[in-house]
Structure formats: structure tokens, C-alpha cells
Amino acid sequence: MADQDGTAGKLFSLCVFTFVQSKELSETLIQELSQNVTKYGAEVCQPKRDGSLPLNAATHIISNTIDFPQYMEATSMMIPVIKSSWIQASLAKNRQVQIRPHSPDPRMIFSDVVLSCADIPESDKESIIGATMALGGTDSNNLTKLVTHICALSMDHPKCQMAQEKGLRCKIVLPHWFDDCFKLGKRIDDAPYLLPDPEILRAHPGGNIPIPSGQHLQGATSARPDFIPTPVDSEAGARPKLTIFHEKKVMLSSDLSISTRLKDIVKELISGGGGELTDYVDDCDWFVCHYRDGDNYIRAAYAGKHIGNLSWLYHLITHNAWTTPTHRLLHYPIPRNGIPGFKDLRIAVSNYGGEARIYLENLITASGATYTKTMKADNTHLITARSNSEKCDAARDWNISMANHLWIEESYAKCQMQSLTVSKYTHFPQRTNLGEVIGQTMFDVDKLQAMYYPGGPRKPSSASKRKRKTSDRAEEEADADNSADATGRHTRKDFDVMQDDDVEVADQSIEESGGPRPAKRRVTSFATPAREQRHVRAGKENETPSTVSSSSRSAKEKARSRLSGLVDDIALYEKEKKRVLKDGQPWGGKRAADQIEKKHLNRRSVSSPAPPSDQDDEVAAATKRPARKTKLALKQIEARVILTGFKRWVNDKHKEDADRRKLREMGISVVSDGNVCDYLVAPQLVRTVKFLRNLSRGATVVSSSWIETCLDTGEVPPPTDYLLKDKENEQRMGLKLQTSVARAAANKGRLLRGLPIYCTASIKNGTESYKVIAEDNGAQFLVYGPRSGSTIKPTSPDEDPDGPDPVYLLSTANPEEKKLWKKFEDMARQGNMEPRVVASDWLLDVVMKQELSFDKKYLVTNFFNNA
């Protein structure tokens, strides 16, 4: 057909393809695809002699995996990396189809899903479709041969019946499957959710489930393996010739502690494959070490070398195929002292078996915690693949924290303990063993850099003349529905940064030791842009900042705008699906459909069917659709509120669900933190992250009694009649709340504009809570650790006629952090700045008062001595 209409030579006429050979994309298939695209006007670039891709010439990279050395470089250059199925789909449609559904990125968990919704309520339908598309899927209004999943509540819908009659290979699933996948950020098996007889509706939640094999853990269960595994394609014990080391130089670090004999074997394998060992980090292409510290490690990281451990090297030898060391957690060097916060934890494991259990044991140990084979009362955490087992029962009895493996994986990947208040860490689908998705978590390279080689260049190892651009972050989109502050719940006798859902006020404030001494920079007098830019640099001094193309930014903004408009509906859907009927059965199936139909009797009928979009693919073009009824419109939102410290719903989820719906019907939308809000609702002055962030944004602070009155009376009195008044805590904190609110409105989030604020990596409560508070007020926030280089540009005193500006380091008085003080002070003075090492309470008090001031009582040497 393409030849007949003259488009055969035009389909790929502007494309230059290069292919990445792998197990998923064989050499034979590459040759076949190359002939096809060349026929349709494309050019094909062959890899260079050293195996690297010609990125300067290519417009498209065809790869069925992201495991190739230049993936990060390609994404930074905005070269699309797409699966071979994109070529086939484009040829079938005689046009270049969308790239996103054909991404090999494993974080796009629905990349091969074509969804069509049946009898799903309109608001829920929009939520499911929006989230599915954000994670790589596509939507089809009509039932075509391309549809892979029909989302339905029962088999009664004509779309489901037609799929059965025509014998289509699409799966009919309950919306619960999408919901569980969204919550976890992982794609789980859809078998328990398949209609007409879904297992989650008929089987007992606590029934036995086979323990799956850890398919993503092959060769990655230990950071220090005892031997080199047998190659996967060896015959009769003969090891095939390696090609992975061709023209590569490898450096083995001294901290690997391998025997001379084993080192000789590795050297022989590398040299036999066309590579060589080197003793100089500047000469190597790949650096192999056990710990992520030391001069050679930092030097290699700054130079953009590929860094892995012995397990990663053995994996390359065994499979003779490239894998990026940061794609598997135990292929990258481990932290010598573990992850901050894990040292005193005792963690047990339940419902995982085989390689998954070995992997978790080694990951727990690498994190710095103690792995225990048995469950005792002195355990602090239980990691389990399901919520049913004897250990789970014991954990509930002993009040031991229980989480799935995503908690330990993401804590390790982000180099910081994650809060168990994030719902995906405590979510356990009824008939799923989460061992089926273990090992899929990748490192957060930005967090890795910030912790272990801050200020280092995040650029590809090989030079490129193209401008670097920022790639899309699909993991952030996957986590959007699970947003929460990543801080643990800690207590101390003075005010701490409390978790968002804390309902109590801290016991005691800091004793005042005289009035605050105004600093040179006051709230109404900001530094000029030139002075702000002079102070701090996040990376190399001459490094070009990353930019984002207008088309990429536009696409991301559109997707973000669409999802943000569905926030209320997504929240309502998540609440509705948790409802339980009187007989104990989950919400769903035909009864759910019947009740939904009764609930919306007043919808208008719409009987005209949608016209078919493609006659070749359409299965049911001529079928008349049943009458549809429109949903009664909700009242327009008149007030968006954020709640913190709200006590009414504590331990009563059903009451919370009902109250949220009631508020929404009155025009009040309860939004999550991070969204724009009109009113911040709190019972009293509290120093939670929510309170401080939204106060900084100028939200009107009202008492929680306003919400109580709305719910009790069904009417909405003026919120200005319920402005928060808390004389006791105002006196304790030395402020007037309404003055702070007025200042915040005037500051417009610029209270700390351009002010450099550093924070020790191991500070109590974690760095993330302080980071969001500081950045919401315009500060430049950086994490400072033992291996942090100088990030303040040195200047002479002549450049600052008004004297040095202050630079702050938030710290506690523990011995590890004390070691950083002198190094920080020396760095500040070399940059002609005044160093101030202060307790974190300085930042909290400044933000609460919305006035930039400083008192020597906040210096760590004074603060902790007087505490």
C-alpha cells in the first residue's frame, strides 16, 4: 500500500537509525529491520570499532533494553531510545507512531498496554487512563485488535461480551489491578484480577500463594561473590571467548581483597577478550571497587567512569553482555558505614524465598542494619512480601514496623532511609507475593552523587558537542500518587521537624537568651542577582547548565496539568475501592456496578455511538452502544485546603472518607501537600513540614474548628472568622502568627532568596525535610558530607565592600558531624564568607517568623550545650 501511494521512500526519510544488539534484539533481526527502514528512506549508522554508538549522527536509537553504556549520554542529548516494535508499528500504520509507548525504560511499566475501559464510572475512568498514559500506556475508546486490557467491573458490558465472542486475546481485568500497580509503582501479575472469576474476590486473602522466583536477581544477589559463575552459554565446561572487554581498560581497586590467583584468572579473561588491566584510574574505562569511598573512587566518579563492584564484573564475564552497574543495587560499590539511620536496626524477612531472601539479607547488611533469621521482640522491622504469616502476626503483636521490600530497596537506592508513611511501602495486594517484582529498583544517580561525590559532573563519559538536556524522570511520575515527606518520626525534648500527620505539638521550645540580633540581610533587603550567583556553585565552575527543550517541557507540562486536574477524582477513586460490604467481600464485581448505576440515576442518556477510527482494526464498529448517563456536576471548588495535625480522623479511615466527600460537596477540596492551597488548617501552631511549607507560600492559616463546623453543620461559614489563634505557642516561639502570615504574603517565597544553606548528610530527621522548607523560601540548599569538595567560589575581600555574607551549615553535635565543622569553616572563609554552623532550629524559627535574623544562641556550640 505504501508503494502505491508514493510514501514508501518518505516514511523514515529524516531518520538516522543505530541499533543496539542484545539478547532481546538479535543480529538477524537488526539486519532485517535495517533493510526495512532503508527501503523507506532512512539511514543506518553502524557502531564504531570500539562498539560505541555514533550519537552525533543518530536521530533514533533502536534498543529493546536500556542496558547499554551510552544510554545516559543518549537521553541527555535527547536522542529517543525506542524498542524495535516502534519500527514495526510505524510500518503497519504507514506513519511514525508515538514513541512513548515503545520505550524500553522499565519504569514505564505500562509501555505495552493498550487500555479500553468498559463500565467504569467516568471520573474513575479518567483517573485510570491518565495514570496509565503517564506510565507509558495508551488508551483506546473503541475495542480494536490492538487492545491488550479491558478495565471492567463485570462481564455484563457489551465491550466485554464482544471480546469473548470474537475470541480477542485482550485481558479483562478489575480496576483493582491498575490501582495496585499505581500504588506500588511496579507492574504485578494481572492473573488474580481477571474476570469473569477474579481470584481476589473469591479466594481467602490469607491463603497460600506460590513464592515466585527472583527473575531480576540473576547474578546480583551479593556485592561480594565467592566465585566466578559458569557462563550461561558455555558448552562442556568450555568458557566462550569474551567480547565485552574489547578495547576496554579495567582497574581493580585494592579494597576488593581478592587473592592473587583469582586476580590472575580475571586478568587472563579480560586480556583474552581484547581488554587489559591498568593500575591508573585516569587510564581506565571501568573502575571496580568494593566501597564507594577513597581517592580513586571519587576521581573515577568525577571523570564519568563506569564504576561497579566484583559482582558486576562477574556478571559481565558470565553473560558476556553489558549491564549498567547502577541498574542493580548490589552491582554498585557498597557504603562503608551503611545508610544513615540503619545502624541500630534489626530486620527480619518473611514470605521471600530462594535468591530473593539471599538478596534481601545482603542488602540489609549493606545498608548497615542487622539481619536476623528469627523474629524476636527486639526486632525493629519486618520486611515481608505479604501481610500474612506467623512473623507478620508477631510483628503486629509486638508493634514492630512492617514493610515490603520496596522500602529497603529505595532507601538503599536513594542513600537515605525512606519514611514508612509512604503508602507503597506498606501496601500488600491480596493475592500477590511481591517477590515477583523484587530487584527492579535502580539507583537514584543524583542522590548517589550528592552523598558520595557532591559537585561532581553529571555528564556522560565520552565528549559530545551537543548541548546536554535533562531527560524525563518516569519514576517521579510513578511516585506522584504516593508523595509523602521522606522523613522518619523522631522525637526530642525541643521542637523538631515533625511528620505531616503528627497531631501533637512538641513539648518544649528553645529558651530565649536575649532578643534576636538583626543580620545584615533583612527580609526586605535582598542580595542582588550578581551576588547570589557568586556564592555557590553546584558543580564545576565552567559547566554549562542543563536545559530542557521547549517541546519536552510542553509535553511534560501538559501531562502534569492533566493529572493535577484529576487529583480530586483520583483521591475519591482510591477511597471508594477500599470500601467493604457488610458480608466482608471487597468492593467490585456486579454488585459494585449495580450500586454505581443506582447512585447515578439522574445522568442524562447519550445514545449515539462513537464512529470507528480504523476499519482494518475495528471489531465492533456497527454495534450501538447502550445509553449513558452523565454524572451530576459537583459544586465548583471554592476553597482548597491542606490539613496538618488534624485529629478528627485519627484511626478512623471510614470517617475520613465520608468527611472528605462531604467537604467536596460543599466546595471544599482537601489537597495533598505540594499543591496550591488557599487555607492551611491546623489545631494550633505546629512545626510540621506541611505547616512551614504552606505558611511560606502565603496560605491563610485557620483553625481546624472551621472544618469541624463545616462537617457538623453542613454549612460553610467564612473562614476568616476562624483565623488560628494560639497565644501560648506564640509566646513560646516569640512570634505573632498573623504577622508571620502577612510577612509570608509579602515575601512570596523569597525570604531566603539566594542564601546558601548547607546541611550535614546524617542530620537527625534526614535532609529532605529541611531541603523542601529551605527551597520553598528561595534558599540554595546543598548536602555537605565528608567527601564534599569546595562548592563556594573563592573571592577576595575587595569584591565584597560590605563585608562577607553569611553561609549556614545545619548540624547536630554528634562526633561524626563535628569533624565537618572546621572543613566547612575553612571553605567559607576562602570564599570570603562568614561561616555559621547552626542547629536546624535556626531555619525552622526563621521560616516560622518569616523574618531573616540570626542569634548566637543557634550556633551549635551554644545551642546543644544549653539544651
From TrEMBL:
InterPro entries: BRCT_dom, BRCT_dom_sf, CellCycle_DNARepair_Reg. Residues 453-561, 583-626 are annotated as: Disordered. Residues 7-104, 105-195, 342-414, 641-724, 747-860 form the BRCT domain. SUPFAM superfamilies: BRCT domain. Residues 531-543 have a biased composition (Basic and acidic residues). It comes from the Eukaryota. PANTHER family: REGULATOR OF TY1 TRANSPOSITION PROTEIN 107 (PTHR47667). This is BRCT domain-containing protein. The lineage of its organism: Eukaryota, Fungi, Dikarya, Ascomycota, Pezizomycotina.
